[in-house]
Design brief:
This protein is an alpha+beta fold. The chain folds into 2 domains: 2-56 and 308-356, no CATH class; 68-296, no CATH class. It contains 7 helices and 15 strands.
Length: 383
């Protein structure tokens, strides 16, 4: 019984086979068919190989939503070098609510404003990347995926070397409220008072003013390797002592989620403006570096995505089946056209052969003999 059941099952499976099987005796091999098959299999292999690289690649998906987080603090990462001594300048933040943020966490380090050859090479590379980012925006996706390490810090200097240096490096981080504010570096240390704050600059000589500066790094939120901010590598040099540099920054909260990094950070765009302070011509103001920032109400969610394996299989089957069917149809169409052309020539040859008088009389005696043979039994029967 079991054997009969197995035989019935195999018979049923064979009857349900939907794929047509052509016997090998019915298949006619040809040089053109072999050439087309070879080209088709080669194209299948190339496209399948390229599709595998597409499957390995990832892309960044951008989603926008309203930022509902208003109570948390925002981190500002600063690394700026100013061509003035550290005891002549002061940096502080004043937000829109007239709240002064103390910058005790910032470090003032005397340095040389000129860069070493290694630092200058890194600075030129950074400027080149910034230029490419302005032209090719898709380069930012590459920077999200691959982290670019910053150059190693300079070796510590002795006290004698520090006393002879005429520039000041201000670096560190501080936390501010998520409201619009103004981070500025100007002459003198800041002094808080009930109506805001002021900078003690009366004891500093006006001839020592020099707000030539270089922004090595300025970012908001968590510092993430591989993200180059728009102001990184900015260098401004001025021969005038009374000079105001203004940067108007729009900050966009960003949630970054890649295969390597998952963090909450901020991106920003910036507009630059600078002018010489001259009260005689109506250009009023205070010499210094002013960064006025505002926070957008929208948040960007950046997620690195990968093609699912089932989608890769579907695309691969589509490539193989499409090429196989297309090449078969093209080969059949070309063969049909060739057969049509050859049949026309053969029909012309047949007509010429049919008009030859030597070929026509050969079939007539056969037909007459057959007729005479078939009529004989009929006559005998009538008799």
């Amino acid at each position: 019984m079991r054997r009969l059941t197995k035989k019935k099952a195999l018979t049923l499976v064979k009857e349900l086979d939907a794929f047509p099987k052509v016997p090998e005796s019915y298949v006619e091999s040809s040089a053109s068919g072999g050439t087309v098959s070879l080209l088709a299999f080669t194209l299948m292999a190339i496209l399948a190989f390229l599709e595998f690289f597409v499957y390995r690649d990832t892309w960044m998906k951008y989603e926008y939503e309203v930022d509902k987080d208003f109570s948390s603090k925002m981190k500002i990462n600063i690394d700026i070098t100013v061509a003035m001594r550290c005891n002549h300048i002061g940096a502080d933040v004043l937000d829109l609510a007239e709240t002064m943020v103390f910058t005790d966490s910032l470090t003032y380090e005397p340095v040389n404003f000129d860069l070493t050859p290694q630092q200058r090479l890194w600075h030129m590379t950074l400027l080149h990347i910034q230029d490419r980012l302005r032209v090719e925006h898709a380069l930012q996706d590459v920077l999200f995926k691959a982290a670019i390490n910053r150059p190693p810090p300079d070796p510590p200097q002795s006290e004698e070397e520090k006393s002879s240096l005429g520039a000041c490096r201000i670096y560190g981080h501080m936390y501010v409220n998520k409201v619009a504010g103004n981070f500025h570096i100007t002459v003198g240390k800041s002094i808080p008072h009930p109506r805001g704050h002021a900078h003690l600059s009366a004891l500093i000589s006006h001839d020592s003013y020099n707000f030539s500066h270089r922004i090595d790094h300025l970012s908001f939120g968590e510092a993430i390797p591989g993200i180059i901010s728009p102001l990184d590598g900015t260098e401004k040099v001025t021969p005038v002592s009374d000079h105001m540099f203004q940067y108007f920054i729009t900050i966009v909260p960003t949630k970054l989620n890649t295969h390597k990094i998952s963090a909450d950070t901020h991106q920003y765009s910036v507009t630059e403006r600078e002018r010489v302070i001259n009260h005689a011509i109506g250009s009023h103001g205070i010499s210094g570096i002013f960064m006025k920032y505002d926070i957008s109400s929208l948040m960007v969610r950046v997620t690195e995505q990968h093609m699912p394996f089932w989608q890769f299989l579907v695309r691969l089957c589509g490539i193989i089946g499409g090429i196989f069917s297309t090449t078969g149809m093209l080969h059949g169409a070309v063969g049909f056209l060739v057969d049509c052309i050859c049949c026309r020539f053969q029909m012309g040859i047949y007509k010429r052969l049919k008009g030859d008088p030597q070929e026509a009389p050969q079939e007539a005696p056969v037909i007459e003999q057959v007729n005479s043979n078939t009529s004989a039994p009929t006559e005998n029967f009538n008799q």
